[in-house]
Amino acid sequence: MDPQKTGFDYSTFNPSYFQHLEQRIKDLDALGIQADLILFHPYDSWGFARMGQAMDKHYIQYIVARLASYKNIWWSLANEYDLMAQLGQKPLSAWDFIGKTVHQEDPSGHLLSIHNFYDPPVHKGTTKNWFDYTKPWITHLSIQSDNVFFVPKWLDDFQKPIIFDECRYEGNIEFGWGDNSAKGMVDSFYRIVLRGGYATHGETYIDKPNTTRPIWWAHGGILRGESQKRITYLKQLLATNGFNYVNPMAVQGPHWELAVGESPDKQHVFAYIGDNQPEFEIFDFLPKDNIYSAQVIDTWNMTSTKLNERIDKNHYFHIPRKPYQAILLTKIN
Q: Which domain of life, per UniProt (predicted)?
């Protein structure tokens, strides 16, 4: 794109802008937060999505040189990269060059990925619009999807971490991606994490149409929803029970309604039942001869109740009929 038509000189950088960005990255680091920096996006009104390969390279070299020394930086090549092709901003063929350039210019080897567009009527049953995540310089999958059942399969297919950067947001706006309930948001987290993936929280509450009040998803500020408290509770449960990561279980057989993961030391199994309400369960996917004690986790009320039964793979056990429960097992033999 001709810089004359946008009012920007793509060859000259504004140091004060990037100094401000650096300070925000430092602020995030002080809070223990990783900064997944989006380099390009389709919602562009200034021409930066249409600069062309030479200026793209110039921009990438500058921003990587400035920011690669920050330990909390990740690189996200684009938000909804494939939508940029539909809008005529960048061809799909451009991303291999962009990704390789970021990777080659970064001496610190930060995490690097790219994020897809997701329209459920079009993309619900396919991953054809995903970038080729088998590229050696891609460190993890950064996906937008609500297909939370497929995490174990994708882990097996790609042998890389699976991050749901968008699994819908808790909020009240008019779009399906931003009007999920708090319970729906928490449900997605349990189903993704206990199948071995990772999930990103987002919140899109407004007080009125065309609001001028900051929306947390875009501007930060005040969290007004209820899901983040329950997500923190899940994180605490995982941390105190040795789940540095999750090995998915029960991925075959008649257990599609469960999300089940085992701790790396094999001492704990965490099974999420969700909005299903069985009164009797049998965990026939458990390792042979293992015996476990159990806690019933109320994921919404954030409580834990000891179950006075011993659990193994051969016997049914009784649980209260209630939605949004999980069973946390601890090996005792």
A: Bacteria
